[in-house]
Amino acid sequence: MMCAMALDLSSAWGDGGLGVCRSLELAHQSLLCGGLPVGAVVLDLDGELVAEGRNRAYDPPGGDDRLQGSPIAHAEMNALARIATSADMSTMTLWSSHQPCAMCAAACEFTGVGSVRFVAPDPSDDQPGPDPSGVEGHWLIVANVLFLEGVRAYSGASAPMLVRARGLEPETIDLLDAIAPQQLRTATLQEALGPIWHQVVSAAQRRQHRIDG
Ligand SMILES: [Zn+2]
């Protein structure tokens, strides 16, 4: 019964939680805009949305994010930049679609964010960190499919990061190769995932099998 529920997108989406699902939706928005697909949200103690942001480092300047078009316009920074200095962040949780980089981790520490969570290790790291605990493997696949498709669209299929990912995350690259690029460019993330959800779940299972040895 649990297995059947996990295979169903709407059930999985309902179980995913706001931090995971909204971070991924924002990453998907970055993909649609031609940017780097990373999204982040800040939630309060009750799990309500306080602020959100997506990577805009590669967006043209002039949008509504203060940092847009600058090298520090990471998803987490854009989310934090929407919170007042006077706010007590100690009870807040920042969720990102990917493990925060050194800059964003330092910003979270500096601003006193109570907890930092992420959906997937950063595929742009030479040595990606361990998988996050408490996040279903299918969301990790979704996060990395979005990220790597964004890199492919921006830098081409021979981008070093994609070549490296073929060794580090073969199931994700196989999935990327199997789906049409336009499949991910739907108005909403759920529309993109619906037709390929069984492939996402299968990739997550194969990845887990590889890791378990
Ligand atoms: Zn960052």
UniProtKB/TrEMBL annotation:
Gene3D superfamilies named in the record: Cytidine Deaminase, domain 2
InterPro entries registered for this protein in UniProt: CMP_dCMP_dom (IPR002125), Cytidine_deaminase-like (IPR016193)
Domain CMP/dCMP-type deaminase: 14-136
One annotated GO molecular function: catalytic activity
Listed CDD domains: nucleoside_deaminase
Cross-referenced Pfam families: dCMP_cyt_deam_1
PANTHER family the UniProt entry points to: CYTOSINE DEAMINASE FAMILY MEMBER (PTHR11079), RIBOFLAVIN BIOSYNTHESIS PROTEIN PYRD, CHLOROPLASTIC (PTHR11079:SF162)
Name of the protein in question: Cytidine and deoxycytidylate deaminase zinc-binding region
